Amino acid sequence: MTTPTGAIAAMPVPPLFSHGGSSGAHLRAFDWTDHPLGPPEFWDPALMAAVNTMLGSPESMYLVWGEARWFFHNDAYLPALGPRVSQATGTTLPALWADAWPAVEGMVTRGFRGEGSSVRDYAIEMARFGQPERTWWTFSYTPIRDAAGRVLGLQCITNETTEAVATAARLKRSEAYWQKLFASIQEPLIVGEMVHEENGRIEDWRIVDYNPAWARLMSDPGLDLRGKRLRKTFPMVSADWIGRAARVVESGRSVSFTRQFGSTGGWYDGVVQPMGDGQFVILFTDVTERVQSEQKMAEQDERRRMAAEIGQVGLWEMDLRTGELAWDRTTRQVFGVGEDREPQQADMRAAIHPEDREEFERRLAEATGTDCVFEMQFRAIGMDDGVERWASMKGIIIRDGDRPVRLLGAARDITEQVLSERRRMTLNQELAHRLKNTLAVVGAIVSQTLRGADDLESARHSTMARIRALASAHDVVMSGHKNAASIRTIVMGAIRIHDEGGRIACEGPDLTLGSKTSLTLSLILHELATNAAKYGALSTAGGRVKVAWSIQRGSSRQPPMLAFSWTEQGGPPVTAPEQEGFGTQLIRMGLSETGTGSVKFDYAPAGVQCHLTAPLAEVLNAGEEPEERA
After folding, report:
1. What pTM, to 2 d.p., does this model score?
2. In this structure, which long-range contacts are made by residues 584-588, counting pairs with CB atoms below 8 Å and at least 24 apart in sequence?
């Protein structure tokens, strides 16, 4: 069959709203029989056209129609509806969005009068998910008119910007805080970035930012130099400034300098540090007086030396809202974490020793709730290396209104100080222990001497000689904390009282030990000799002891070590003690203050053996070159 001339070919009519996705499906499934708008087949063609256009749009849209403000939406708008999607078909805008209606009612009213509206990041209070929340939206209302120009409804294109607004607010607060901190620094400070020419070479750098102190240094605080090139702004600047900054950016390592410049011609110490992405920061310190006066220069050098000794302080920041941590390299070293890892608060808490964790949490909660300073010394188990360290942390709370948002502070590795203090306390306890036992030792000397003497006069001479030897041994022990000493002198002084008949043999090279090692070795030898005299080889006539020391040369990766041994033989059969006393605990501390040496006890039946090692560089007196001669 052919179509008559002038007739319109019949076209198949698709189901209503079939192109509208789930929103169209809801419109088809809704029972419009008793609805004021009636079945869609009888709707105003303008309404049907507007609904079909909206359903096919990829933009988030809804329609408001008629005096009742009937509401229609498309699929792109579904995320905005949240749980209200089940109520959104066949209802009105005021009924569906009763909580948000007061914020948009005025714009809707003006829209039906023919006035379009457009807002950006508009705040609306609503409770989409059961709890009141403040949201932000960017949207526009466009009147929908009929052929006569009458407004029948409104088209709204809308997008939620809540997250973007909140992020911008956080960034603004953060930027304001750092800008305030930046501006409060009394030393001149400038941030720059390298400028590459077309040939790829670095010919200049651009001024990114600077603090008021730097502006005053350059004599014109009112002139805004941000974005300007350095050499074009200050032609007199030497190329060395450009080269130094380029080396810092390319190498990633900071560079220090002392230069004369500025409006007053003063001298300044400076440090150029890389910031990444081609940027760097320069911090200046005025040292004019130091350069002009040798005496003041020496004083400042001394202060710098002391600062370097006390240094090794790490800076850190904890975001109490997100759990994020910002650690510098020193703080990472305190917690034994590598540069490629980004630890969170949970990681840091897990790294704190279990015995210290509860107190850490208590103090952190106290600081967060009362604005007091957070401060604590605790043990940390390295997140990556598993090494136990002692750490000292101190920080202050930063608040956003009444809410604590950040914790800023400093951290130091105090392991060496803690171990040194424990060692000092142990040695002091041992000294006190030895002094209390002095009378007991004297009594033993008198008893042993009288038991083997032929007459009273020889007993008197032997007793006095042994008491003088005891006094000499105590001199070595008590002087060891003040002066360095020969290892042979220490050994002979400690064993002389027990070496009747030359039963103790000594061999080893001449070495001069440092003061701390001298004291420690004296106490260890005193303990070993006393135990041998009471229970071991020196308690019988045929017993012998060999004391030997040597230098063990390690490989290229292992430092030289001092090896010291005590070997007994010929005494009564040996059995290991069921419980170690304080003296044995002292011996097990070894010769190394840092704990990098070793201590081995062997309770062999033939005689007790004790072997100790310690890094040679640690035990020697400062500056000594060891000579391996017997």
Report:
1. 0.37
2. 584/527, 585/426, 586/426, 586/427, 586/430, 586/523, 586/524, 586/527, 587/524, 587/527, 587/528
